[in-house]
Design goal:
Shape: globular
Structural class: alpha/beta
Distance between the termini: 24 Å
Strand content: 5-15%
Strand order of the largest sheet: 6-5-4-1-7-8-9
Order of helices and strands: HHEEEHEHEEEHHHEHEHHEHH
Number of helices: 12
Helix content: 25-40%
């Protein structure tokens, strides 16, 4: 079997939606979104990804206690570990609300504490990296399960009919705001890390960008037309939630953590570095998830409960795509 066939299988494994809560479920009725983006993004990262920023962290204010969700940090951390082991420079990027959870996830994958870098807004409302005014130079920026702002009248489309429909369905109070899947505005708990994908440049170049998401409200889905997204959302989903921030490649998955597994695996296939993923078997992943919930703390983003589940999926269901990937890669599993 060729590398491209293996990567196609990897993408197929993560394009499942057992809870039928995200965009993948719509593929029974509509053509797949962004099919093949995994292979293209992996080729680019393998060839040119020397300094990689990985953005993650999705805060759930309605949880008790309020906490980061379990989807995002684990996928980001395994990807950071893989690239670091390849000798690439890596930053795990988050905000003050999610920093503790991302640090716990990083620790679970044997990463140093200082790999987690934090952005917040300064007194002028602009992003500031840690306590410095200098932003690192990245060749690539990857977002895994990070909310981005919704569309505005100007961004939604150039088509007058689409704009009219948007204006009718989405109130102005929802324009350019970050939303959860319920349509609640979460700007207060979502510092604007999306600005990295809009404004960061390195000299005359900007980083190549990749977005990973499952529901349409994450960074990356601006690459898909608003009208196409809203017809694919689960029933009763608010039409305000699609994110306007686009990326060069958008990887659509049933659970965003799976996108981190998939990118690492696809790059490993291309570079013949599959053995680097051997340690992260089912036992490791279960321990990492339990540690994240207990020590992050972190909660399931669907149930808002501090349980070792992801997007409402019990662990044995959640881990199945990764188990399938490992078998395809020839890795032993426990």
């Amino acid at each position: 079997m060729t590398g491209s066939e293996i990567i196609s299988d990897i993408e197929r494994f993560v394009r499942t939606d057992p809870a039928r809560r995200g965009l993948i479920a719509s593929e029974e009725e509509f053509p797949p979104l962004c099919l093949g983006h995994l292979a293209s993004a992996a080729e680019e990262l393998a060839a040119n990804g020397t300094s990689i920023g990985i953005v993650t962290g999705y805060f759930v204010p309605r949880a008790n206690p309020p906490a980061a969700e379990t989807d995002g940090p684990l996928g980001a951390a395994i990807l950071a570990r893989f690239f670091r082991d390849l000798g690439r420079k890596v930053d795990l990027i988050t905000d003050p609300f999610c920093a503790d959870a991302v640090r716990v996830a990083a620790e679970a994958y044997g990463l140093p504490r200082d790999i987690v870098r934090m952005f917040d807004t300064n007194s002028h409302g602009n992003l500031q990296f840690d306590d410095t005014a200098t932003t690192p130079e990245w060749t690539h920026l990857i977002s895994i399960e990070r909310s981005g702002p919704a569309h505005t009248f100007e961004s939604v489309s150039r088509d007058d009919e689409d704009r009219q429909r948007f204006a009718e369905l989405v109130p102005k109070t929802a324009w350019n705001r970050c939303h959860n899947m319920l349509g609640d505005v979460i700007d207060e708990w979502t510092p604007p890390l999306h600005q990295l994908f809009e404004h960061v440049t390195q000299g005359d170049q900007r980083p190549t960008t990749i977005g990973v998401g499952d529901g349409g409200n994450e960074i990356g889905f601006g690459a898909v037309a608003w009208t196409d997204l809203i017809r694919r959302l689960p029933p009763a989903s608010p039409p305000c939630i699609p994110c306007r921030i686009s990326t060069d490649w958008t990887i659509v998955t049933g659970v965003s953590n799976w996108g981190g597994y998939a990118i690492a695996s696809a790059v490993a296939v291309i570079l013949n570095e599959v053995s680097r993923l051997q340690p992260f078997d089912r036992i490791h992943e279960q321990a990492a998830l339990e540690s994240l919930v207990r020590r992050g703390p972190a909660v399931d983003g669907v149930t808002a409960r501090p349980d070792p589940t992801v997007d409402g999926l019990p662990f044995l269901t959640y881990i199945q795509p990764w188990q399938s990937i490992r078998r395809r890669l020839g890795l032993t599993s426990n």
